[in-house]
Every structure is written in C-alpha cells, then in structure tokens.
Design brief:
- The structure holds 2 protein chains of 2 kinds.
- Chain A folds into 2 domains: 253 residues, 3-Layer(aba) Sandwich (Rossmann fold); 32 residues, no CATH class.
- Chain A is α/β, with parallel strands linked by helices.
- Chain B has 17 helices and 30 strands.
- Chain B has 5 domains: 96 residues, no CATH class; 162 residues, von Willebrand factor, type A domain (Rossmann fold); 95 residues, Immunoglobulin-like, CATH 2.60.40; 208 residues, Rossmann fold (3-Layer(aba) Sandwich); 78 residues, no CATH class.
- Chain B is α/β, with parallel strands linked by helices.
- The longest helix of chain B is centred in the C-terminal third of the chain and has 33 residues.
- In chain B, helix 3 packs antiparallel against helix 5, helix 10 packs across helix 11 and helix 13 runs antiparallel to helix 14.
- In chain B, the strands form 7 sheets. In chain B, strands 17-16-18-19-25-24-23-21 form an 8-stranded mixed β-sheet, with helices on both faces. Chain B has a 5-stranded mixed β-sheet with strand order 6-5-4-7-8. Chain B has a 5-stranded mixed β-sheet with strand order 26-30-29-27-28, with no helix packed on it.
- Chain B is elongated.
- The chains are: A alpha/beta, B alpha/beta.
- The interface between A and B is medium-sized, with 33 and 19 residues.
- Strand 8 of chain A pairs parallel with strand 2 of chain B.
Chain lengths: 321, 716
C-alpha cells in the first residue's frame, strides 16, 4: 500500500515528532527550517527505481559543426584523426519535481502560520533532503496556472534558487490543477518523482482527470494534502458570515448546525481523493499543519522504501525461471 | 434655558448616524474568512441574542459631540430679569411723502394714495410728530412738524385730511430724488427731542421715469427708515409725446417739426396715431399719421404738417389707454429783427475794418435777422435811425450832436459798445459818460494779453467752464490805457496783463456803455479771428436786451423768462446799480394767461414760474401777446413701475414695502432683546469648548480601541 492511512483522528500522530511546528515556523529562513528538519534524519535510505551511474560514459557520436567542442575526445582524435564527441548519462539517479500549490485557499490558517507556510516548509525540507542525497530537484509553484518553474537539477546553487522561489508569497486565486499539471507533463518529460503539495480542495472527479496525466507520463507521484486543524474540526462558535477566500462569496452559517455535515462531506472528499490515488498508484499523505514536519518526511521515506521493496520483489520474480 | 435659534436643535437628530454606524460596523467585523465553502450549505440566520452596540463609550462620546454642537448652534441663553431697558415710548417722527406728479392722474391712483395717507394719519399717536409733503418736480410742504405740534391732538387728523384733500396731481414731472432728500432734511431741521423712530412713508406709483438725481451719495440722518407704499394702476397701454423744443421754425415756414414719442415698458400696444388738434375742419379731416413703436422704446418722428397759418397748435397722440400725456403743445418761435447802429462809414467789405467782422459775426438765422444801420452814413446824423436800433457800436469819435443823442438813447435803457480805436477818443468817452476826468493813453509794448476776466458777469459767464475760459492766446498788438475814476460806478469786466482795463461797463441812465480798449481789426488784435469773438458778440447782443427770448417751448415746472423788453436791461443793471434794478422791477407788470384761463400779473422783470399744467401760456406786455408752449416731460410717460432695488442701490434706507403690523413689531423687539441677552452670555462658546474636549477624548479613545485588538492578537 503506497499511501499511509489518513490520520485525522489519531492523537498519537498529531503534533508528535522531533520538532515543534510552531517553533519551526518561527524561524524566518525557509532554508534553515528545512535544514533543521533534515538534520539528524539522515538515516533514511531509498532505492532508485532506475539504474543510473553518475558521470557514466555511454557512447560516441561523430562531431558535426555547431557541437560544443568541450566534449571532443582529443585522445581518440590523436589516435584516429577523427572528431568524436563523448556522451554521458545523467548525473543523478532521481529526478524529483515538487509541485507546490500557491492558490489563495492555501493562505488560510488558524494557527500563527498558514497552510502555505507549512507547504513551502515541507517542500523545502524534501528538496534539502533529496539534494543532500545527490538527487536532482525541480520546482513548480502554481495556482490557476504555473507561476514558477525550476528544472530538476543537482548543481551548486540550485538549491538556493529553489529556496528563493519557494519564499514568494502566494499570488494565485483559485485551485485549478488542470492547467498546471498539463504544463508539468510537458516540461518534465523524463520519468521521475512528482511530489504534489496542495490542499486538494477541488472536486474529486476533476482531480482524477488531471492527475491521470502524470500517470500516463510514467511518473511516480506522491501527494501531500495539507489541511488546517480548523478545516478538519470546523471549530467555530458564533453564527456569522463566512467568506470564501478564493471566490470571496459570503455565506451565513451557524457552525453548530453545519459542523457534522461539513465533517462528513470533508471526509467523503478525502476518501474520494484516497481512492483515486490508489487507483492511479499514487502515494497519498494527509498532513495537518499542527503536525511535526519530520513525521511527514518519515511517512514519505517509509512509502519510498515500501515501493523499493516491491520493485525488488518484482525484479526477482521476473528473473526467476 | 431658552434658545435664540431653536430650529438648530433638530441637528441633534444627527446622533442617529453614529448609532447606525456602530451597528453596521458590528456586522462588517463579524465576517469570517475561510479556505473554501465547497462543503458548506447556507443556514438561515438564527437569532440567538439581540444585536448589541459595540464600544458604547465611544458611541456616547460621538453622540455627545453632536448634541453639544447642535446646542451651540441653537445659541442658548438663560432668561433673567437683566433684560435690556425698555425702548423709549412709541413716539416717532413720520414724514408722509405723497406723489402728485402727472402720472398720478391715471385712473384711481390718486384716490389710492389719499386713502393710504389718510390711513397713516389716522394711525398716528398723540406723541408722534407728522409732516405731510407732496412732491412732483418740487416738494411742497403741506404740514410741517411745527404746525402739527401746534394743533390740538383731536383736530390733527381732520386738519391734515383737509389739507390733503386740497392737493391733487398736477401736470408736472417727478423728481423723486429731490423729494426724498428734502424729507430727510426735515429731520435734520427739527433736532428737538429725539424720537425712537424716524420714518419716511413714500406714497407713489414709483414710475421708472422719475428722476433720482441727488440720491447717490446722500448722507441720510441716523435712524431714518423709508417705507414705500406703492399705488398700482391697472395695467394699461401708455405712450407719450414731446415736441422737440428746438424744432420748428418761425410761423409760415414749412420746415418739419420733430416729435419724440415713448411707449411704456409695460405697454400692450404698438401702433399709435398722431394728428394736430385743430378747429379747422379741413385739417381735421386729414388722415392721422400712423406710427409703430414697440413697448419700452423711444423714437423721434416727423410730425404731420402743421395746419396752414397756425402759429400755435396741439399735437394729439391716440391709440393708447392713458390720456394724461397724450397732448403736446407747439408754438412757432417768433422771428426777431434786430437792428444795430454802427457809428461809422467804413466799407463792410474791407477786412482791415471793424465793420467787416461785425457784419459777418451777426449772420442771418431763421430765428433772427440782424440789420446793421449807420446813422452817420448820410451827410447829416439821423437820430431816428438811432432810435430804431437796439444796440450800437461806436468805433469813432462822435460829434457833439451825436454824443447828446446817443447819451439820451443810452439813458433809456439801451446798450452800446464803444471801441477805442485810438487815444483821441477820450473826449467822446468823457462826454458820453459825463466823466471829464477819464483819460486815455496809447499803451506801450509789443503786445498785450488778457490777464484777468470777471467770469461772474453775464457776458463772460458762458465761458466760465475751464474748457472755454482760455483767452490768453489772443494777442492784442495795440491797446489804449483807460483810467476810470472811482466815482464812475464802473465795472471792469476784463483786464490786460499790464493791469489796464480791456472791457469796462459804465452805466449811463438806464443803459450801459461797454468800453473796449482795443479794436478787433487785424491791425489792433487777433480778437476777430479767435474762436471767442462770435460767441462773445452773440452773448453781448442777448445781454444788451436787443433780442427777445428765443425759446418758445418749456417743460412744466420751468420758469419762463419775462418777454418784457426791459427785463434783461434791469437784470444786467443790477450788477451796476441796485437802484436801477429796483426801478425795473417797479415797471408795469406782465400779465400772464394760463391754459385754464386764469390770469396772473407778474412784475415785468420777474420770470413766470407757475407753469404747473401743460398748455399754451400767453404773456401780454407792451400791448403785445407772446405765446409759450409748456409741455409735460416725456419721462413722465414712462409709467412702468421701477424696481425697489434701484432705490436700495442708491442707498435709500428702505424698510419694508408694506406697513409692519404692531404684533410683528413687538415680536421683533422681543427677538432683538433676546439676541442682546444671548450676546452677553455667549454660552455657545462654552459649548464649542465642550465639543472640542469631547472630540479630543473621542480621538484618544478611538485610537486606543484601534490598537487594542492587535495587542490581544499578539498576546494570544
């Protein structure tokens, strides 16, 4: 089972961990936050599903005018008096793209920080972690369309660029996964890991249709659904006008009257997303913003290890006669 | 507590504003943002508790601020016994000014005016001082303050009504400015005990043709109020006419007569007819001339042809509805024949001679023909010719016979001009004046200028204006020094710059001898070719009495100069000899016949002033009849009412249009007392200070409340 079970009501999972999220969010630098979470957690192992050899020679190709002369094999030229270029494999084992939702609904937060703050910290943590393993990390931030794109790379300074891109405040309006995921499918052609961090507050059928594109491209997809504690409990007391942050529509509500119905429908939505994820072979993690970030990282790595074992088993069964 | 302007308390209702704003703000504040409402359905509002006002203290302060402001504007004061001293008794000075101009002859106006005046008289209190004046072109006092005070209280109203009943509108113009300033002067003339109120009640139709001269810049006595009581005529078309006074020609001349016609601004008609009123059946049968004149306009037209042989006639305007100004009277000016005696035999065609210029300066005009005769031209002197002359010019020495005849002629009231063409004329002058000590010598020097002129003399009075008074450019190449003894009773009218007389007037009997010490011929001076020569000679001819009055057209109210031949002689003589003037006044009287047939005898020298009705006046003197046409001023025909703003603009202290009722007066007095009391207490200042203090408190509290939620959130 690729996804961990949603822990809406599990008090043991909520708030436990090595780092208190409130204390973590008080740190201003996103990079430092990621470093704090990853430090001490450097025992997570994962296997790449792909056979990669860094700086590995693959083939020669005859030189044609316009090619970069830096890759000319001068020794071969000395031997054969012919110009050949050396071609290498990619430098990394894993190409991971982080998809961070920057829609307006992510600005909601009943704590001292918003869902967007939490999501960006989570993305930074994953990026730091993967980068420190030598994996290439890319970034998409999106709302109704892709706002920021950094290709997956592993080179000096790339992580810094990624942190800067993540530090931008949400500028989008509504959550619309259709257009951003289409662009992701276009831009991330090589197969790799896609980590989607969003509140997924959109109709389930729409989500299913859009996420299906990533599966078709052969990507491995991990979904983190970020929710505020108030979104789970709807813990309001006075009857008042509620305003939708994205559409700015007003709705007069008596929380006491609508709470149970709200929770029921939210749970149904979450289950719908889970079923869809399972159907598409995605890993699904629901993260509440009062939850420690290292637990989310742990869930992520645990899911990765399970998947690695399953791949190994499948490989062994295939190799047996 | 009382309020001077209680309606401002309505402003206190504005406190509803802050209350509403506090309620509205509460609703706005309770809007709760949420990430997504996709899992929520609206629920109907369930009232769990009544809506409460937020920040009650802030609300109270805001309401208090508005309340204090409303109280301040209502100008509160505490009623106390410390009221102003009661006004002095109701005694007042009242001048009733009743219009009796010609326009008041319109239907019903005079009765209205009398009723208004009688009403004011009836309401006068025993302590009041009342004066009653009527006015048209001139104000006339019917009852003065002193006269009113002299009557017993019971009889005052009845006597005043009696005087008023004797008055009636006459045919004169309206000089409203003079009437109002005269009424104001009555207050100044009567400084007696001060009255609490000084009022002028002006009862008039306030026609726009009334003259307002004298009102601009007039210093009104303190405390005078003018109340205008309008009498209004029923709307009617009115047009008036005026024969232009200088138009026409001596009788028998066929030249056209111009007539000016005005149509009142509020007139409803535009087409009128013009015709001569005559008993001649043939002339009456002639079609009247039709004229077109829009309302509010004045135009000049050619009058229809005067009936043949008529020297006096009446021009009638028909077609309008008001008749008082529809007739204009015309008298053809009399043609004069003036004879001047010239004591010389020079040619009239030689420019070097004096005669040449004299002949030309008295050129013939339609109204006056001047004939110059020479009694000495023949071999023997002719006294008969001299007696025919009205004026004489003596440029030469005279023989003894001539001197005697001339002296007698002068003594009968004639005037002669003696021109000293040489220094040898001394004996002639001495003999004429009977002053043997008179000496004449030839003056030395290159030339002389006129240095000193007596502009108070009628001869030079027309030149008194600074624009015409420059005689200094006339060069006199030669002149004679004349020394007149002090006993001569002579008057020097002009002097040269060397101090010697240039023109002197020496009385001889009833007549005058003017002595000019230089000739006007080019050898002696530039006088004849200067612009001063013709007017001065014309004035000399008029002043000498040689010419009869030229005007035959006058306006009502104007004085007609006496047609008696000795009138001007006597007038001129008064400068030289008061005794002679007295004799002239005692001369046989001139009998005047007014248009209504009334006969009045006036001293021969005195002008006739009773021109109070339009028509033809006939003066009989020396067995001759002289006719004069007296007409109404055309301004009187502009009967549309004038705006009261025009009077206000000229500084007339207007009070109200209509009478102020007693109850309203008391109310106003009470209001004035309250205003004075409020002005002393000035409670509004404290209220404004209170407003500022409350506003400051509100600002501080509001600021604190605005900061408080942030503090709470941070602590949370």
């Amino acid at each position: 089972m690729p996804a961990s079970s949603p822990a809406i009501s599990s008090p043991l999972r909520r708030g436990e961990g090595f780092v208190d999220p409130k204390a973590l969010m008080a740190i201003r630098s996103l990079e430092l936050r990621a470093q704090v979470v990853v430090e001490g957690f450097w025992n997570g192992l994962h296997r790449s599903p792909y056979h990669g050899f860094s700086v590995e020679f693959t083939e020669y190709r005859q030189y044609t005018p316009g090619d970069d002369t830096r890759y000319l094999d001068w020794r071969l030229y000395a031997r054969s008096d012919r110009y050949y270029l050396k071609k290498f494999e990619d430098e990394t084992n894993l190409r991971c793209h982080l998809l961070v939702d920057q829609s307006r609904s992510m600005t909601y937060g009943s704590l001292t920080y918003s869902k967007s703050d939490y999501a960006r910290t989570l993305a930074a943590t994953l990026a730091w972690f993967l980068n420190s393993q030598g994996d290439a990390v890319g970034l998409f931030t999106f709302a109704e369309r892709v706002q920021n794109y950094l290709p997956a790379r592993h080179r000096h300074g790339h992580l810094r660029q990624l942190m800067l891109a993540l530090e931008g405040e949400p500028e989008g309006r509504e959550t619309n996964l259709g257009e951003p995921l289409r662009r992701v499918a276009e831009l991330a052609r090589n197969r790799g890991l896609i980590v989607l961090i969003s509140d997924l507050l959109a109709p389930v059928d729409e989500l299913e249709r859009n996420l299906g594109r990533l599966t078709a491209a052969g990507h491995e997809v991990v979904i983190f659904q970020i929710l505020d504690p108030n979104e789970l409990t709807f813990d309001f007391s006075a009857a008042t006008l509620f305003q939708d942050i994205e559409s700015e529509k007003d709705l007069y509500l008596d929380p006491q009257a609508v709470r149970s119905e709200y929770q029921r429908r939210l749970q149904a939505h979450t289950q719908g997303v889970q079923i869809t994820s399972r159907k598409l072979g995605f890993a699904f993690h629901q993260v509440v913003t009062d939850q420690s970030l290292d637990i989310a990282l742990f869930d992520f790595l645990k899911g990765r290890r399970r998947r690695g074992k399953r791949v190994n088993r499948r490989a062994q069964s295939v190799s047996r006669p | 507590m009382n309020f001077l302007a209680p309606w401002f308390l309505l402003g206190a209702a504005a406190i509803a504003g802050p209350i509403i704003f506090h309620l509205i703000r509460r609703v706005v504040k309770e809007r709760m943002p949420f990430s997504s409402l996709m899992f929520l359905n609206p629920t109907p509002p369930r009232v769990t508790r009544r809506r409460k006002l937020d920040n009650l203290l802030l609300l109270v302060l805001r309401c208090l601020c508005l309340l204090l402001l409303a109280l301040g504007f209502a100008r509160p004061f505490f009623a106390s016994d410390d009221v102003l001293p009661a006004p002095a008794g109701e005694a007042r000075q009242l001048v009733l000014l009743v219009d009796t101009s010609a326009s008041m002859q319109r239907e019903g106006l005079w009765n209205q005016a009398r009723a208004l005046a009688e009403n004011d008289l009836a309401k006068s209190k025993p302590g009041d001082q009342v004066a009653l004046l009527t006015f048209d072109g001139q104000p006339r006092t019917l009852i003065s303050f002193a006269e009113w005070a002299g009557w017993s209280v019971d009889q005052r109203a009845a006597l005043a009504r009696e005087r008023l009943a004797a008055a009636s509108p006459r045919g004169r113009g309206t000089h409203l400015g003079l009437a109002l300033t005269s009424a104001a002067e009555l207050f100044q003339e009567d400084p007696g005990k001060p009255a609490s109120r000084r009022e002028v009640v002006l009862i008039t139709d306030l026609q726009e043709g009334a003259k307002l001269e004298g009102l601009q810049g007039h210093e009104w006595p303190a405390g005078v109020n003018v109340t205008v009581a309008l009498v209004a005529a029923k709307p009617a078309a009115n047009a008036g006419l005026e024969i232009l006074s200088d138009a026409g020609a001596p009788s028998g001349d066929a030249k056209e007569i111009r007539v000016r016609i005005t149509n009142a601004r509020d007139s409803s008609r535009e087409i009128f007819q013009l015709n001569w009123e005559t008993k001649n059946a043939a002339a009456r049968a002639r079609e009247p001339m039709e004229i077109y004149l829009p309302p509010g306009q004045t135009r000049s037209f050619s009058a229809p042809k005067l009936p043949a042989g008529a020297s006096a006639a009446t021009l009638q305007l028909t077609g309008d509805e008001v008749s008082f100004d529809n007739r204009s009277f015309y008298v053809a000016p009399e043609s004069e024949h003036v004879t001047i005696a010239w004591f010389g035999s020079e040619s009239a065609n030689d420019p070097a001679n004096l005669r040449y210029y004299l002949q030309r300066v008295f050129s013939e005009t339609p109204r006056r023909k001047v004939e110059i005769i020479s009694p000495t031209a023949q071999s023997a002197f002719s006294p008969e010719l001299l007696n025919q002359a009205a004026f004489a010019v003596i440029p030469n020495r005279l023989a003894a016979e001539e001197i005697t005849a001339t002296r007698n002629w002068l003594a009968r009231g004639r005037t002669a001009l003696l021109v000293l063409t040489d220094a040898q004329m001394g004996p002639t002058l001495a003999a004429l004046t009977g002053l043997p000590e008179i000496q004449i010598t030839e003056a030395a020097g290159s030339f002389a200028l006129l240095g000193e002129i007596d502009f108070t003399h009628p001869l030079f009075a027309p030149f008194a204006d600074p624009r015409f008074s420059d005689f200094a450019h006339i060069h006199f190449w030669k002149h004679r020094r004349l020394e007149i003894p002090a006993t001569a009773n002579a008057r020097v009218l002009a002097k040269f710059d060397d101090g010697s007389p240039a023109l002197a007037q020496i009385p001889i009997g009833k007549g005058n001898l003017l002595v000019l010490t230089a000739g006007w011929n080019p050898a002696d001076s530039q006088f004849a070719v200067s612009s001063k020569f013709p007017p001065l000679m014309q004035t000399l001819l008029d002043w000498s009495g040689a010419a009869a009055p030229a005007r035959s057209q006058f306006l009502t109210g104007e004085a007609i100069p006496s047609p008696a031949s000795g009138a001007r002689t006597a007038l001129s003589a008064r400068f030289a000899s008061p005794e002679l003037a007295d004799k002239a006044v005692r001369a046989p009287a001139v009998e005047w016949q007014k248009p209504d047939g009334q006969r009045v005898s006036v001293a021969s020298a005195a002008p006739f002033t009773e021109t109070d009705q339009p028509g033809i006046y006939i003066a009989t003197c020396d067995g001759q009849d002289h006719r004069f046409a007296v007409n109404l001023s055309l301004d009187e025909s502009r009967t549309a009412p004038m705006s009261l703003d025009e009077l206000a603009r000229l500084g007339v202290p207007l009070q109200t249009i209509t009478e102020v009722p007693g109850a309203r007066t008391q109310e106003r007095q009470r209001h004035l007392q309250q205003a004075e009391l409020e002005n002393r207490q000035k409670l509004w200042r404290w209220l404004i200070i209170g407003v500022l203090a409350v506003t400051f408190g509100e600002i501080m509290l509001g600021g604190w409340l605005a900061r408080r939620p942030k503090t709470t959130a941070a602590s949370a």
